[in-house]
Amino acid sequence: KKTEQELKDEEMELFTKYYMEWKGGRKSGNTSYTNIPRFYYRLPAEDEILLQKLREESRAVFLQRKSRELLDNEELQNLWFLLDKHQTSPMIGEEAMINYENFLKVGEKAGPKCKQFFTAKIFAKLLHNDPYGRISIMQFFNYVMRKG
Question: Region 31-45: what's the mean pLDDT?
């Protein structure tokens, strides 16, 4: 027969084992923490010329790619022209408005760089208590200029 102390020790051992398995402790074989990707790389030292050149070149390529994504002046003018052409009446004071249907039409005609701005999420974000379910063309255009 086991003594009372041995029974308590055995009970505590089983409790700890099952608790760690339930909690997701490391004893259960959960090794997801070993798969965390590396996200920090130290800056190259002054004597590591090749690494410095690689860093400069990769930064330049990244900035060129981002620059190509930006809308140039001609594309912005074309977007404004399309938005103005597809505005939905009635105007609110001096402010031109556009409904979702026309918003999507402009998105199809505006070109591939503008496609990212013609989403339901962005339309909903700019929608403010309009009884006809429209957004302000000026607010949308300013949004594009800030984000793009």
Answer: 76
Work out the burial of residue 140: count CB atoms within 10 Å of its CB; fewer than 13 is exposed, 13-18 middle, 19 or more buried: buried
Burial 7-28 (b: 16+ CB within 10 A, else e): eeeeeeeeeeeeeeeeeeeeee
Say yes or no to pLDDT of 55 above 50: yes
Architecture label for domain 73-147: Orthogonal Bundle (1.10)
Residue 49 has pLDDT above 60, yes or no: yes
Question: Which residues face 98 on adjacent strands?
Answer: 135
- Classify residue 134 as left (phi > 0), alpha (psi -120 to 50) or beta: beta
Neighbours of 98 (CB within 10 A): 23
Angle at CA of residue 116, ends 115 and 117, nearest 5°: 90
Q: How far apart are CA 97 and CA 138, in angstroms?
A: 8
Q: Which residues contact 76 (CB under 8 A, 6 or more apart)?
A: 144, 145
What is this structure's pTM? Answer: 0.59
Question: Domain residues of the chain, as ranges?
Answer: 73-147
Question: Where do we find the tokens 């105007």?
Answer: 91
